[in-house]
From TrEMBL:
<feature type="transmembrane region" description="Helical">
    <location>
        <begin position="185"/>
        <end position="202"/>
    </location>
</feature>
<feature type="transmembrane region" description="Helical">
    <location>
        <begin position="233"/>
        <end position="252"/>
    </location>
</feature>
<feature type="transmembrane region" description="Helical">
    <location>
        <begin position="7"/>
        <end position="25"/>
    </location>
</feature>
<dbReference type="InterPro" id="IPR017516">
    <property type="entry name" value="AbrB_dup"/>
</dbReference>
<feature type="transmembrane region" description="Helical">
    <location>
        <begin position="57"/>
        <end position="77"/>
    </location>
</feature>
<feature type="transmembrane region" description="Helical">
    <location>
        <begin position="83"/>
        <end position="106"/>
    </location>
</feature>
<feature type="transmembrane region" description="Helical">
    <location>
        <begin position="317"/>
        <end position="338"/>
    </location>
</feature>
<dbReference type="InterPro" id="IPR007820">
    <property type="entry name" value="AbrB_fam"/>
</dbReference>
<feature type="transmembrane region" description="Helical">
    <location>
        <begin position="264"/>
        <end position="285"/>
    </location>
</feature>
<protein>
    <recommendedName>
        <fullName>AbrB family transcriptional regulator</fullName>
    </recommendedName>
</protein>
<keyword id="KW-0472">Membrane</keyword>
<feature type="transmembrane region" description="Helical">
    <location>
        <begin position="31"/>
        <end position="50"/>
    </location>
</feature>
<feature type="transmembrane region" description="Helical">
    <location>
        <begin position="141"/>
        <end position="165"/>
    </location>
</feature>
<dbReference type="Pfam" id="PF05145">
    <property type="entry name" value="AbrB"/>
</dbReference>
<dbReference type="GO" id="GO:0016020">
    <property type="term" value="C:membrane"/>
</dbReference>
<keyword id="KW-1133">Transmembrane helix</keyword>
<dbReference type="GO" id="GO:0010468">
    <property type="term" value="P:regulation of gene expression"/>
</dbReference>
Amino acid sequence: MIKNIYYLLLMYAVSLITTGLFIVLHIPLPWILGPLVAVFLLNFLTKFHLEQNKTILNVSFLLTGAQIGSTFTSTTLKGVIPYFIPFLIITILLIVICIQSGTLLAKYANIEKTTGILGSVPGGLSVMVAMSDSMKANTGLVAIFHTIRLMAVLFIVPLLASFFFTDNHAELALPNETPSEFSGWTFVIYVLLFGLAFLLRFKIPASYVLIPMMIIAVIKLLSLPISDVPISLYHFAQLSIGIHLGLSIRMADLKKAGNFSWIFFLFTCFIISISTGLGYIFALFSELSFATAMLSLAPGGLVEMAITAGEVNADPAIVGSLQLVRMLFIILLLPFLLKKMYILPIDRQ
């Protein structure tokens, strides 16, 4: 117990130091990428049994979801609803490109088609691993491919977005930096949200992010009084999520992939390029900025892309909403489409 607390404090201490360095160097997403790099290296260079505290992590997801939800306005709805169908069409096009590319990847790498496709579709790691189990794919390779994608997206997309869309390092997604009172009413709401997310954790994917995001958004749209997430708590939440991401990436997994690693890294860069091009087209046919459109289609996670949106003066609420639409599409419809259209129930190449 004492050793676990020591390791936890060590991870946070090293992460804070690295985050400070990233801030000085003006590296994007310092509060996520800093701890990610720090904990990944700490895990690789030591034999410590490092684990993130589940409660701390879930509270951090809740705070992040609440912050994304607090950026919702009536303008957000007006910005999303007219372009829902075009976004869905472009999302389907991107997923089809990923599926076809995954098929070619499987043929080139001499692996099962099921494995190649599930490793290529831009879904969440846990979701795609669960799908690979049910569809008889090589779950280990699918997990490794998505680990490589996660690393590439977390570093390339924020750097790309920062280079094109901002002239200086600013964290625009952060709550108002002027101190504001965190009301007792807000604390009660957050406790209730945590309890609701806990009860629905097996029924709603990423419940600790989605439930507070949607409910806080409704509260904001109804103009009900609720405090913003304090900046110190928001930084702590990002730090905790960064530590979690750093622990999820293991050098052993990357080594296990062997020659597949560089192939899939290049493939991920290709998908990022395609999503950037589609984002540009989406921006042309909508009133959304290029940054907002690009990050809405980027093959990254909802939380990471919404936070990046704030840094580059895009709209975090719209990015979060559209990333949510894609995530739900992948979870609800993709397994059915793959089984019916692309993959036989048992794929033995």
